Amino acid sequence: xxxxxxxxxxxxxxxxxxxxxxxxxxxxxxxxxxxxxxxxxxxxxxxxxxxxxxxxxxxxxxxxxxxxxxxxxxxxxxxxxxxxxxxxxxxxxxxxxxxxxxxxxxxxxxxxxxxxxxxxxxxxxxxxxxxxxxxxxxxxxxxxxxxxxxxxxxxxxxxxxxxxxxxxxxxxxxxxxxxxxxxxxxxxxxxxxxxxxxxxxxxxxxxxxxxxxxxxxxxxxxxxxxxxxxxxxxxxxxxxxxxxxxxxxxxxxxxxxxxxxxxxxxxxxxxxxxxxxxxxxxxxxxxxxxxxxxxxxxxxxxxxxxxxxxxxxxxxxxxxxxxxxxxxxxxxxxxxxxxxxxxxxxxxxxxxxxxxxxxxxxxxxxxxxxxxxxxxxxxxxxx
Length: 383
Fold this sequence. Notes:
The protein is an alpha/beta fold. The chain contains 15 helices and eight strands.
């Protein structure tokens, strides 16, 4: 009998490339992508499988340092190290990179030159949300669409795009339903389980991901009791937390992670793409305007407090809705976008009644263990 629910999640999470390699043998195409800003709807509409590139904090970087300076984002270096060693990403047919941050922009050419994927595309994502930026992004997305059509030999019609949009919107709704199971105290599902589910559904076709989510939700709802006891409830904010070890450390130290604002979490699933007669315009608006990320600049209006409310009010609402007691603000070394925002978020959340704590790591298992004592001290303060 095929594995289902959380058992299947563990299988995919622990051997992320196994299912992908089986699909490659069957002639299916798999395109790897970095970042929340890669428009997965276009890939699905083109008949290729979107495969999110993630790192491994348990693996020491060995070969990437010969290609990339050590002061570059350790998450990006970790991912490239896996690829250059001929491991997890040697099977990818294509490689997609949006203009998310300087480090991800740099890795595009390094990856393309050294690994030579069959297909590559750089999506020039604007950093502002005005009308001119939306028009520019729509043009970029149309060029991306034509590039995919040329490579795959398949026309991407508006009907196909809207069908893909619906599938991915359905997935976002299912992720929200999964997160809702964390609202009770104690939560029905742990933060460690949730991150493994999210990682897993980004490694398989969206239809299969939706079925897996339904299985997991049914399994969790069927639990007689919570797998954890009542503990301080925390929100985790940060960039690409795509390895369960960090969340697991926080929970084992004495808390329940009940909500997040991370790249591979709410940031990827807390928006929808409108189904319209012009699906490209709908995708442009959703990805540029509706995703909350420090790399996107929003015009400041009013006082400083008004600005903080406009930028971070959604985090306060997360904390209120999920009854968080405090917030961990996690940054990765050399990630300027998040380090610049962390201080403002802490100030804003402290005043809103949700004490914050800033921690920095270098995307290694050792740094996670170093943070354990500091995390424990903070949890004792909010308990």
